[in-house]
Amino acid sequence: MAKRMLLEDQIRHNKSVTVRLFLILFLILFAIVFGVGYYLQVTPWVTAGFALVFGLFYLFMASSFSIPAILKSARARPANPMVREEKLLMMRVEEMAIAAGMPPPKVYIQEDKDINAFATGKKPEESIVCFTTGALAALDQEELQGVVAHELSHIRNYDIRVTTYAIALIGLIAMVGEMVVRSVFWGGARHGRSRDAGGGNIILIVIALALVILAPILSRMVYFAISRRREYLADASGAQLTRNPDGLARALQKIAGTQPEPSHGDRTVASLYLDNPFRRGVRESAFSTHPPIEKRIERLRQM
Amino acid sequence: MVNWLLIGIVALAVIAVLYFISKRNQFIRYENTIDNSWAQIDVQLQRRGELIPNLVETVKGYAAHEKSTFKAVSDARAAMMGAQSPQAKMEADNFLTQALGKLFAIAEAYPELKANTNFLQLQDELSHTENKVAFARQHYNDAVLQYNNAIEQFPGSLVAGSRKERQMLQVPEASKALPKVSFA
What we know:
The complex is a heterodimer of chains A (303) and B (184).
Chain A: H1 2-40, H2 44-73, E1 76-78, H3 84-100, E2 106-110, E3 117-121, E4 127-132, H4 133-138, H5 141-156, H6 159-186, H7 188-198, H8 202-242, H9 245-256, H10 293-302
Parallel strand pairs in A: 2-4
Antiparallel strand pairs in A: 1-2, 3-4
Helix pairs in contact in A: 1-2, 1-6, 1-8, 2-6, 3-5, 5-8, 5-9, 6-7, 6-8, 9-10
Chain B: H1 2-60, H2 67-82, H3 86-107, H4 111-115, H5 117-152, H6 156-160
Helix pairs in contact in B: 1-2, 1-3, 1-5, 2-3
């Protein structure tokens, strides 16, 4: 019983951290929007409205076109039930879906030597898990089950949505930043007008500019922090599904023993993979999507 | 003054009624989850029962003289298909799993049988249904736990009325030593 409490505490903790990080992301967005508004001497409401329209548009685009785009860039194909390995994977997915009480996602295969997997989709009812051929070859069924549970947890915890929204927010922040930089170079006339109105507020303008320049970097760091948190969360809730943290721990150990090859795929969805397919961090850095494998294994062993 | 008091009382009553309704609906949702989880288990047990005659036939083709094992499997299957209550079904299924374990152990001694694709498929398929049963039971028990907590904890217990605690599906003592999940 003590073990289970620990697991549930971990899940709760990870969730509340995500909420706080999202709040920071929103604060950054607000700060930058009003910074821009101040710089351009427009009413804050106009800027905010502008940001809102852009944001919703971006969110809509991101969520409608992301799935086919991700599958295409990963060069994924549907799993073939006539191949035993792939059939076994489909079985493991179906089993874990039953354990999670959710509809089974579609299974895709990515031809890649690395041991990896990712999940994507708009909602649990229309989701996809994709495994590399390397994972199918290297992992035994128990390890495979652990990884499947991890990916299904990403789906069940709505990480797909968290990622989509976080990426949209970051995109928006970057976009606003870009607009400001352009207006500084192009909008000479407007700049003149604001000088007339603003007078000696040069310091405030500098602060606003600094904010605009720093915001994209900051928001990216927040996003990576969210992503790492969700990784721990998926590990923990995956273990809750299999009641066997050892399977996933051993799979991670196998990954730790390999070096990633230069991968193709969409970098923006790196956080949806079991482990970052592009870069492997040894230390927990502010710019990594995944916590170091050793730390994840350690936490799984503690469950 | 009296009006304000009246409004206050009415507001409280409305809140109480809304709480009552939402709690009731929550209980019904949980009950449906439990029933649905059991239906899932039942479907898998049925599927398991359907696969077994095929498996026995395949093994017979290579190891015809292992009659006692075939009989044990067939008996266990018949008992499982005939069991009525969820708990009885689960227990019968457990015996079936043990009998199947012996059958698969025999298969180890026949390399040609092990190479038979039909046999391999049946083996994969059977361990698949076994895992599905195990995980469906896990989900069932999770749902029962959630339901029992909901109807016993205050203030939900006030709304629960005549609802009774549901029983979890126990793993029979004999099988606790066996790994819960098996892979071919």
